[in-house]
Amino acid sequence: MGYEKLINCMRCGMCLPHCPTYKETFLETASPRGRVALVRKFQEGDLEGSERFLDYLSLCLDCQACASACPCGVNAGELVAEFKCEKKDRDGLSFMEELVLHWLLPHPDRLEAAAYPLKLYQRSGLQKVVRKLGLLKMFPPRLSRMEGLLPHLPAQPLRRTLQEVTPAQGEERGTVGFFLGCVMSLVFSEASFATVQLLSALGYRVITPKAQKCCGAPNMLASDRAGMEEMARFNVELFSSYDLDFIVTDCGGCGAELKKYGHHLEDDGQAAVFSAKVRDISQVLVEGAALLGQRLRPLPYRVTYHDPCHIAHCQGIRNEPRQLLRMVPGLDYRELDDADACCGSAGTYNIERPEMADRVLLRKIDTIRKTGADYLVTSNPGCLLQLKQALAKTEPQVRVIHLTELLQASING
Amino acid sequence: MEQSFVNDLQKIVGEQFTLSDKESLAVYGYDSTPELESLPGAVVLPGTTGEVARVMSLCHGAGICVTPRGSGTNLSGGSLSAGGVVLQTSRMNRIMEIDEENLTATVETGVITSALHRDVEARGLFYPPDPGSMNISTMGGNVAENSGGLRGLKYGVTSDYVMGLTTILPNGELLKTGGKAVKNVAGYNLNDLLVSSEGTLGIFTGVMVRLIPKPQAKKTMLVHFPELEQAALTVSHIIAARIIPATLEFLDKVTIRCVEDYAKVGLPLDVEAVLLIEVDGHPAMVQDDAAAIRAICEKHRCSFFQTAATADEALKLATARRVALSALARVKPTTILEDATVPRSCIAPMVKLIQETARKYDLTIGTFGHAGDGNLHPTCLTDERDKDEISRAHQAFAEIFDAAIAMGGTITGEHGVGLAKKKYLPKLVGETGIRVMRNIKGAFDPKGILNPGKII
Ligand SMILES: Cc1cc2nc3c(=O)[nH]c(=O)nc-3n(C[C@H](O)[C@H](O)[C@H](O)COP(=O)(O)OP(=O)(O)OC[C@H]3O[C@@H](n4cnc5c(N)ncnc54)[C@H](O)[C@@H]3O)c2cc1C
Ligand code: SF4
Ligand code: SF4
Which fold has domain B217-321? Predict the structure, then answer.
């Protein structure tokens, strides 16, 4: 890792009030400034990578709120992630990681097949029985947490049902490639279907290459750089074979990763071209705002918006989603306090560090309650999963939906 | 530090809030001061005044040094400890009372400055001190450093607002000073003595501050000047015209270039100085003041003058000043931010001198700051790995401080002395000054265990 990046931190502390784990603990070891210092001291040989050392680092959510706040352009979250990657390169992947990251994720068919038993588990009523009887208490805590996060799965993943080419409605403005995220396709297929419909309604011909693979973000989370690079090369080559104006995604996590392909694959000129074409769906919709505005019909909802870290901090997109929501007639938009604070989902963090994840989540829920909104809009599957589940428990009146679903609902009237 | 002593600390504040592992000590070995580091022996995060008192008397008994710490954002090494106990106040973060009749707020000292702003402003009240670090600095740190901010020219600094303090003395005793009475001349003014004591006389656990009504209106202006002297004269002439802007901020040429490189806000590269001016108060007065300021700026040959029409536009105009530090900090890995301060009338000669000194020592120094009160931030952009350049930077700053003293100014306008400026203090206050300070320190802390080695 570049030592330069570490010494750029001038220890000003401007990142501290934005870091979810610092806000909870007030500990310097749980702050971005402290994390940069820990990694730096490791590199300088003052600290060794003890278990406690790694434990401190792994409390980081990689939400990158610190990067948005840092005057010096330091990104503590990314530095920690890179550090973990380098360590992983030396230590190797565990069997489970190997299985999921190299055998399952690169192959959508296998992934969908693996999801099938889960669906059966829900459809057969077994899930209800298990939950009612409190059987989960018999499982190890990690497993029961995962079970708790399981959303209701749609009958068919969108990848299976969507046409490769969706024609433009009305006059054609251009052609976009749709990058369909794994979780969006498997779990939030309705939202991604809405995304495609909106694009088509705005005059875009939408191409969804069926062979596309996972964006590679889960690999990075597990510090598996090689796995990520393999997916990146495949996706770059696949999308480059079409003549596209943009590559659109409605998954914040995928968007952030796809925009970094150019940086990850420095030797590959096509990757830079690919990344430059990547747009979050909100960016594309804002460009077609005039046309979209004519189609929107009143929705009498009280709505608030949660900024996913991967959209606000990693991609710097804050205005577009709000601008789109404000366009919907009759909609009562209410700004959320600390809207861009992490919800605690953060990839697999929720499962790895449940205690901290819950504390971070609780803060989010409190701010949502305060708005009095009956719809929470966001646009990242991790946030959708986490907030849906949590709000269903404590604030059942609040519905959680993806930005494109809300816009499509407004068009449908 | 001996494990048995750490155990005793744990008994007072709890295991979770007592840190003595290698990793924790390593990250409490710094604050925002460049280059300085020293490892403490333990860190505690007490939750109440009572716990602070017990920690203090334990340490007093054992002869172990204690250093208070808020968020560790000071720029003078004040919160560093060599082998002693660092006592972090962050958990004591309750806003106890906002008294709308007496216009006071009483808070625990771990409260973040901007959290107090938010709470009082929601009630139409105003706590003016706004250091650049206000989103993270603690009220305790602000009091201990007597912090100032962008609004200092019109509204003064922290000491102008402190009405009362709850302090734990080095032997663990509790001292209450001041109170809600606006007038108070009973005995020595201990409040004022404690403000800016940089954690060397006592540990503040509570502070009561004065509030004022929130100004009704505000106007923001951005002005460019092709000549440095004319910008400086403008500052003096605005004040001479009996107008006291809330904010009167200055950026020099180097800073302007860095800001433009970084944020592309549309600043022309051929101007020598930019002023950001804000007036606030009654709407009619704000209108008049803004018009008068415009006339003064034009008389001094400004090349551009813009008044913000909306709050959004005001934010935009203020961008250049807001991002000044970021823009400078990104140029090189190491940023040394100083706060040499001169009488207002000496701004132009001081900025000139800084620029010449930078040239002489072949350094990049950008200067920005609170022109209204002569508080400048010459900021040296360097690389800690380049030992030669770092030593030239130290020489340059020594000359800049000497010049500030010669002009009737001071070595630090707001960052405090701590460790970083200790060696310059005798030049400023003389032998007698140092002796009186030593005696004061001795009266509060005869054993010398509270934040030793700082200031004097
Ligand atoms: C980017 C940046 C911008 C800044 N801008 C400004 C500015 O505009 N104006 C300005 O004045 N300063 C500024 N500062 C300096 C610094 O933020 C202030 O001095 C601030 O008040 C420190 O608060 P803190 O909570 O971080 O205190 P710390 O840094 O933790 O401590 C500062 C000193 O106070 C003592 N102390 C802390 N808490 C207590 C307590 N409860 N009782 C007794 N002693 C205590 C410590 O021992 C130490 O000596 C800036 C710093 C940075 C990094
Ligand atoms: S990471 Fe950035 S914001 Fe945080 S202390 Fe370092 S320089 Fe300051
Ligand atoms: S990425 Fe998030 S959790 Fe990690 S240091 Fe930055 S702000 Fe804190």
Answer: Alpha-Beta Plaits (3.30.70)
pLDDT at B141: 98
Q: Is the CB of B375 under 6 A from ligand 1?
A: no
Nearest-CA residue for atom 8 of ligand 2? A12
- The minimum-distance atom of ligand 3 relative to the CA of A62 is 1
Distance CA B25, CA B38 (A): 9
Backbone angles phi, psi at B42, to 5 degrees: -160, 160
Per-residue confidence band for A141, with pLDDT thresholds at 50, 70 and 90: low
Q: What is the CATH number of domain B325-406?
A: 3.30.70.2740
Q: Give the 3-state secondary structure of residue A29.
A: helix
DSSP annotation string for A71-102: TT---HHHHHHHHHHHHHHHH---HHHIIIII
Number of H helices, E strands in chain A: 26, 9
Q: Give the predicted TM-score (pTM) of the model.
A: 0.91
DSSP structure string for B324-345 = HHHHHHTTSSEEEE---B--GG
Ligand nearest to the CA of B165: 1
Query: What's the rounded Cα separation, in Å, for the pair B434 and B455?
Result: 9
Would you state the pLDDT for residue A157?
A: 85
Ranking A86-95, B115-124, B130-139 by mean pLDDT, the lowest is A86-95
Confirm whether A3-91 and A292-412 share one CATH topology.
no
Pocket test for ligand 3, best of A64, A310, A359, A360 (most atoms within 8 A of CB): A64
- Four-point Cα dihedral B358, B359, B363, B366, nearest 10: 50
Res B420: pLDDT: 92
Query: CATH topology for A3-91?
Result: Fumarate Reductase Iron-sulfur Protein; Chain B, domain 2 (1.10.1060)
CB contact under 8 A, B26 and A71: no
- Cβ distance A26 to B91 less than 8 Å, yes or no, reads yes
Mean pLDDT over A369-394 rounds to 93
CATH architecture of B3-88: 2-Layer Sandwich (3.30)
pLDDT given for residue A95 in this prediction: 58
Q: In this complex, which of B90, B136, B333 lies closest to A7 when CB atoms are compared?
A: B333
Nearest CA to ligand 1 atom 5: B132
The CATH class of the B95-213 domain is: alpha beta
**Please, which contacts does B357-360 make with residues 24 or more away whose CB atoms are closer than 8 Å?**
B357/B396, B357/B399, B357/B400, B358/B396, B360/B396
Q: Which of B386, B257, B389 has the alpha carbon at shortest distance from B328? A: B257
Q: Is B34 in the A-facing interface, judged by CB distances under 8 Å?
A: yes
> How many angstroms separate the CA of residue B225 from the nearest CA in chain A?
26
Give dist(CA B264, CA B221) in Å, integer.
Answer: 19
Question: For chain B, what is the mean pLDDT?
Answer: 95
SS3 call for B408: coil
Residues of chain B with CATH 3.30.43.10: 3-88
CATH of domain A292-412: 3.40.50
Among A7, A28, A52, the residue with its CB nearest the CB of B27 is A28
Contact B133 A12 (CB under 8 A): yes
Owner of token pair 């938010």: B118
Both tokens of A75, joined, read 């990104």
Does the structural domain A158-285 have CATH classification 3.40.50? yes
- CB contacts of A71 in chain B (<8 Å) are 323, 325-326, 329-330
Which ligand is closest in space to the CA of residue A71?
A: 2
The ligand minimizing its distance to the Cα of B91 is 1
Per-residue pLDDT tens over the stretch B370-404? 998 999 999 999 999 999 999 999 999 999 999 99
Look at residue A150 in the predicted model and tell me its pLDDT. 63
Three-class secondary structure of residue B281 per DSSP? strand
Say yes or no for a CB contact (<8 Å) between A14 and B71: no
Q: Is A7 an interface residue toward B (CB < 8 Å)?
A: yes
pLDDT tens digits, residue range A383-405?
A: 998 899 899 989 999 999 999 99
